[in-house]
Every structure is written in C-alpha cells, then in structure tokens.
C-alpha cells in the first residue's frame, strides 16, 4: 500500500467531498465516516428519540459540494435533497449543513425566518408557540413538525422517516444543541473517539453498534468492532473502525480486507495510495480516488 503525501488533515483539505446520492445511501455501512465537527452538538444520546441503543447519522456540507460541482460525476444530483426540507424554499447549494438522524433533519442556510414560516403555512402547517427562539409549526394531522430559527430548520417526521412524537423530537434536538440534554458523544466513549479521530468533512456518516462477535472480511466487519465512520472530500476518504479495548485492534485484518477489496472489485477497487494505520484503539484507512470513479 502506498503512503499518502502530507498529513491526514493536509489530504482532507484538498477539496470538497464528492459522492453520488445513490452511493451515499447504498454504501453507508461499508466504508466508515468522519466526525468531530459542530454537527455533533445536535446529536442526542441514543434513546432520546426512539428506543435504540445506537443510531446512524449523515451530515453533508452542500455549499462545499456546490463549489466543486464540476468535479462530481455527471449523474450526481443533489436537488432531490430539497424534498427533505420542503416546502421551505431553500436551494440545496445554499445549505451549509444537512444533518439527518432518527427521523430528524437539521438544515442550516441563510434565509429569512418569516419567509420560511410563510412557506410552511401555505402548505397547511399551523404555527404553534415558540420554543427556545424557534417558531414551531405542526404539519397536517400533526404527524410532522418544523422548527424555524435563525438560519436553522429542525424538522421531524418529514420526507424520509416518521417519529412517534415530532414535537418532543424537535424540542429534544434543540435542547441537545443548547447543552440541556446529553449528547451522543457524552453518552458513548466509542462514538466520541470515532468523531474525534475523524474530524469534520463535506460528507460524514457514522454510527456505533454492539460489539461484533467475529471478523467477516467480505463485509468489512471486525471482531469487537463497536463503531464505524466515513468522511469524503475531493479527492480523499478516511475510514475508521473503533474497538472497545485500548490497543485491541488487529490492523492485519483490516489490511487483508482492503487488499481483497482492491483485488476483487470491492469498495476500494478504484482507490489509490491506500494507507492503513492505528491510532489508539481506532484503525484508520486513508485513500484517494478520482471523483468520477466513486
């Protein structure tokens, strides 16, 4: 395996992330993610929304992607993400952060609050009381809720997944960002270590999980694996696997998986300069690819 030139952070600063929408959805569990940015302050501890002990999140800096849109594959289409925050009239390339988890979306962009409130009211959303500086609007039949704040939307039960109580979900997420509820990173040392190692990026996906019982090379699963994450930037990627005991990481297993993937048409077939390293109890895989090949 070749060595990446420069430090990991130097590599990641080379450009904006690039990955097709279908690839993002289809490979979310395959390659790992990136964390540690301001988005983590919005992520409540598991069980706050729903009853799962673990959950996956996806974060995109769509403004950054738009700046390097010419580098993306021709079939890449991010306009479909606008359905996530519809009926709010916000263009995808104005969104500096789209964060999705557990039926909730957090959208940050430059907009006029009253204009967005009007957009929702035009589609039969009913304005309720304010909460922590946000205007709350219930959707039809109270199955969804939009909270409109200064350049921020917090949405629950819309577009991609329902929630049992959209108002509670929205308020819990706002409280989490304000520091009034425990965060994922406070609740889980594994999650905290994963995002600390990975930092931030234009596309970030990650989750924790119950410790894996065995290594399954073809699935990229490793014994005692308790978290995985991925960050994508043009033209670099970082993958991390976090194990539950300090230094209990079998780097050889990860290297074997990467080698097999490159040789047999797997996830790393089109990646160059692949490097596997150990950091504490985290294994990090770094690589570079032409964005047209992703």
Q: Give the % helix.
A: 10-25%
**What's the pLDDT, averaged over the residues?**
82
Number of domains as seen in the coordinates: 2
Low-confidence stretches: 2-36
How far is the first residue's CA from the last residue's CA? 19 Å
> What percentage of the residues does DSSP assign to strands (E)?
25-35%
Tell me the Rg in angstroms: 19 Å
Secondary-structure-derived class: alpha+beta
Which strand order do you get reading across the main beta sheet? Answer: 4-5-6-7-3-2-1-8-9-10-12-11
Please tally the helical runs, counting DSSP H or I stretches of 4 or more residues: 9
**Which geometry do the CA atoms define?**
globular
State the major sheet: 12 strands, antiparallel
Query: Can you write the helix and strand succession as a string?
Result: HHEHHEEHEEEEHHHEEEHEE
Let me know the number of strands. 12
Summarize the structure.
With 294 residues, this protein is of the alpha+beta class.
Would you write up a description of this structure?
- A 12-stranded antiparallel sheet has the order 4-5-6-7-3-2-1-8-9-10-12-11, sandwiched between helices.
- The model is unreliable at about 1-35 (pLDDT under 50).
- It has helices at about 10, 20-25, 60-65, 80-85, 115-120, 165-180, 185, 190-200, 250-265; strands at about 55-60, 95-100, 105-110, 125-130, 135-140, 145-150, 150-155, 205-210, 225-235, 235-240, 270-280, 280-290.
- It folds into 2 domains: about 10-20 and about 185-294, Streptococcus thermophilus LMG 18311 protein like (3-Layer(aba) Sandwich), CATH 3.40.1720; about 50-180, no CATH class.
- It is about 25% helix and about 25% strand.
- It is globular.
- By secondary structure, the protein is an alpha+beta fold.
